[in-house]
Amino acid sequence: TGTGRIDLASGGTGTGATAAITLAATNGGIDLSTSGAAGNGNLTLRSAGTLVLDTTANNTNIEILSGGDSSSSLFLRSDRGGIDISTSAANGSGNLTLRSAGNLQLDTSIANATILMRTGTGTVDISSGLVQVRSQNDNLTAIRLLADRGGIEISSGTASGNGNVTIKSAGTLTLDTSANNSNIMVRAGTGRIDLSGNTILINSGAG
Fold first, then answer.
1. Largest distance between two CA atoms of the chain
2. Is residue 42 within 8 Å of 34, Cβ to Cβ?
3. pLDDT in tens, 61-113
4. Based on the number of CB atoms within 10 Å of its own CB, is 124 exposed (0-12), middle (13-18) or buried (19 or more)?
């Protein structure tokens, strides 16, 4: 059409096999491309209903590639409602992998919302050269470690190098087992327990 335009319009209301407009290739594939466009090469797919990308006929993959070199070269956004990326119904390998050559960010700061990590009875494994957990809140429970069932273990017992565990507090450091009146045990093996302070008080509630 040279510099002209091609318009396809249909007054039909069908879907699926009776769709109002159908692009079908009996043999070979279909290529929708603007890669050779000298001007504005955008390709826009708009749907007033559900937009479906379906490869279930032959159980093949869906690939999305971006050649952009910016922090948002691939952008997925929902103006209303949420976004669900799920493999929960997968019959085979249901893994979901997020890989990044730069920083991987999970950011809910716009609405100060919560980030939830749920594994049911599974495990959350974090393997890193350095793990840092920081909170911007200024309250007594800015960072909380809670176990609904079972205990919590903080250990460097298997460290082959510097296996120290250090707990520092700019305020009062409290070890509290009063909820169930349980014991506090400090074990040093053949090591030594050093207590250093201006005043050291040891009180027994039993009198």
1. 99
2. yes
3. 888 888 778 877 888 888 888 888 887 665 666 788 888 888 888 888 888 88
4. exposed
Question: What is the number of other CB atoms lying within 10 angstroms of the CB of residue 35?
Answer: 8
- Provide CB contacts within 8 A for 23, sequence distance 6+: 30
Express each pLDDT in 8-28 by its tens digit: 777 766 666 567 788 888 888
Tokens of 40: 């504005």
CB neighbours of residue 66 within 10 Å: 10
Contact 20, 11 (CB under 8 A): yes
Q: Which of 15, 83, 93 is nearest to 54 (CA)?
A: 15
Cβ contact 174:167 at 8 Å? no
**Of 31, 5, 9, which is closest to residue 20 (Cα–Cα)?**
9
